[in-house]
Amino acid sequence: xxxxxxxxxxxxxxxxxxxHVEDAARAAxxxxxxxxxxxxxxVDDDPAEAAVWLPEYARLLGAPPxxxxxxxxxxxxLGWLTGYQLTxxxxxxxxxxxxxLNWKPAxxxxxxxxxxx
Length: 117
Known about the structure:
By secondary structure, the chain is mostly helical. It has one domain (8-112): Rossmann fold (3-Layer(aba) Sandwich). Helices cover 47% and strands 9% of the residues. The protein has six helices and four strands; from the N terminus they run E-E-H-E-H-E-H-H-H-H. It has a two-stranded parallel sheet. The chain has a two-stranded antiparallel ribbon with strand order 2-3. Helix 3 (71-78) runs antiparallel to helix 4 (80-87). The longest helix has 13 residues, at 21-33.
């Protein structure tokens, strides 16, 4: 990213859900101590499309804005997983973990903490 080598596929509509490590730790402790079991999506409240978060990340690093490439090239350039993440992935919602464990992220948006870290 800092060298300007991570391209942004067009369209960069893949949605990523973020989570601060401290929120992950609090959620893990809550889950271990809870009487409720199951699977929980532990994420912040602000999933974002790659077209939003990737340029912001570059800006915060002082890197050049990511160059755009056709989506068809993304998989060949970045590999299947990263290409999928940036073009087609759907973010997660934290509704169940909020209700079942009475948990909420202390950092509700990647936007505030990313700039601070």
